[in-house]
Amino acid sequence: MTTAHSASLRRTRRAGVAAALLALGLSACATVPSGGPVVEGEGGAAGSLSGSGYVRQIPPGPQRDVEPEGLVRGFLKSMGSFEENHSAAREYLAPKTRSDWLPSGRVLVYEDSDKLALDAEVADDGESAQVRLLSSQLATIDAGGQYTPADAGQVIDVTLDLVRNGDDQWRISDPPEHLVLSRSDVDLVYRPLNLYFFNRDRSTLVPDAVFLPVSSDRSATRLVKMLVSGPTSWLDDAVESAFPEDATADVAYDSGTVTVEVDNASGGTTQRFGMRAQLVWTLRQLPEVEELTLRVGGQEIEIPADESENLHTGKGDWDSVNPAGVTGSLRAYFVRDGQMWALESDSRDAQLTESRVAGAPGAGQAALEQHAVSLDEDQVAGIRAGGKEVLVAGTSEGSDYTPVLSGGDYTSLSWDGYGNLWVTEDVSTGRENDDNQQQQDSEAVTEDTERGTPSPTASPSGGEAGDVGTRVWMLRGGTDPVEVDAPDLAESRVTALRMSRDGTRAAVLSSDGKGASHLSVGRVVHSDGAVTLSGEFPLATELEEITDVAWRGGDQLAVVGHVEQGAEQSYLVSLDGSTETTSAGAPPGTDMGGIAAAPGLPLLSGTEDDNVWMTDDRINWKRVGVGTNPVYPG
């Protein structure tokens, strides 16, 4: 099954980056429970997320003669136990409320108990009390498992009513509608996993992060039902599913096998392939799931078909749409003396070799501040020194650079998997500009801009002097500019925009003009010829400053930055919004100038002393050549 699931611009034609550029095992550190007794659960038998290694926390229950504030603190901690339908938390409730309490599935997340304010007020008769809970809100997890960071200044404000029971003990008579959990409790009782959906040409699967409670329930069945019901609201408009919108599924788990029976499924072979691929990539995250049986319209499909393989070892047709966004291997590129060079190896034990890129990129006749290589490695885009012009050239002999945008202040560029070039333009007011030259350049390129979109060189309008702003362009095929509707970036200064290789999301480094940098990821929606980039989702907020970003995979970024008073180094950032960033180190004795990353390949960095460094173990960086600005295609 290949005809409906291949896209030449998304695939590289070279089979060979070498094993010297082999996969990094850079994964997030495991979270260790922060307190309370723990017991080993029977996760394997129950189909839990972690197989037989599933760990659950057992809260001790309410202490006798505890005061209202202490009772509420114990109740909040017990909310983190999902065992037996929150039976531990129900012990804190009044008898009439205990059986009726039904949390909505929505979770309000706060930072930690030290930042939680409780104000208790006991009635004059001593028989009732109110406890008000106040805290800055960190995030929300909705009923569908979507984790959303809270807006700045958002607070949790909940008031609980308490009464004395027949034993003269305080109990909660009016529990909150939602669960209220600390970040450490979320880390302990939830696990981030991905649902997988298709990008718009169905050539690549796109991860959609959700949080699933770790409990004795059968997590595999819950994960499949979430997949069939569709993507999260954040990603919904940017992806497609092979499952019909109104489809439902009967799901069963037994001894390592998940059986899925889909009703109301239409379509033929192509749709079955899509459902199969989405299920396989979603279920491969669960180590206890080894086989999948899919029944569609009475037809049964066993996966994998080879009895000697399982979902984790088998190689099936689902690999053709793998979430990496590329098949084969990518070469790395860097610049030396203005000329672009490729870096690759032909075998596992071979030395890395350098080869100058053919055509204009390798000739070095255009001084470029930045460059980006298309995923098919056939085109190179660059921002000419001074930032006023964007050029594109082929990588074949005799090619020349062609201006595709001019007259603006261009700050970054990146290629998506559809062969489109993305460019950001600084339209901040208060800059010194030659208005006459701006107008001449604008008239020169007007005919190259699609009707209904402003000229690439149109001067910024409105706003007071000193306002920051960014305009985003998408050049179809690298040549035809269309202005992207990017409302979240209109009042920011963007220093880097990097497109995901599946074309559905953009990682953005920006500032509000006050010096601080912010990392976010937005979704890309194509509709009736228009393109929108919106829904900026903040990431790596614990880093003090971030200076560069690259996509390491479909659900992970690599960045250069530092924590407060820390040294600058590289970090890996998960797109789930909650998983803590992890350090990937830094080259010794020099400052990092940027970061390059790609699925299954080492991290690369150009340093201030004009050397290229790499690491394939997150600890040891080694120098691989003289040059600057290393990049992978994308």
TrEMBL record:
Coiled coil: none annotated. Residues 1-30 form the signal peptide. SMART domains: Germane (SM00909). Residues 220-305 form the GerMN domain. Pfam families: Germane, Gmad1, LpqB_N. The keyword Signal applies. Residues 429-469, 576-595 are annotated as: Disordered. Keywords: Signal. This is LpqB family beta-propeller domain-containing protein. It comes from Streptomonospora halophila.
